[in-house]
Design brief:
Elements lengths: L10 H17 L7 H12 L8 H9 L3 H17 L13
Length: 96
């Protein structure tokens, strides 16, 4: 996973940037986005087809990340997860 990072830019640097971005979202009153969700979006969507990334691109990608991008990603993830469940899992939402 971290092999995509520039050799001068390590895991701890990326962790710090992601913490900053999560903090920025919280300052905007967006409290439900975790650091793990940001990381998953970056590696599974934004950087999926990249073999390596220069440090400046990593910084730009993290710091320019918009809530709408994460929201769209999480919405798709929720639909994928829900599609694997059976009707019994939704029983509490079904009125009697």
């Amino acid at each position: 996973m971290n092999e995509k990072l520039d050799y001068k830019f390590g895991k701890y640097d990326l962790d710090f940037l992601i913490k900053l971005k999560a903090h920025e979202f919280r300052k905007q009153k967006i409290d439900n986005i975790s650091e793990k969700e940001i990381r998953n979006y970056l590696f599974n969507i934004k950087w999926k087809s990249q073999k390596s990334l220069p440090m400046c691109d990593i910084i730009d990608d993290v710091m320019n990340l918009q809530f709408s991008e994460i929201f769209d990603y999480l919405s798709i993830q929720a639909v994928k997860e829900a599609s694997t469940l059976d009707l019994a899992a939704f029983q509490e939402f079904i009125s009697k």
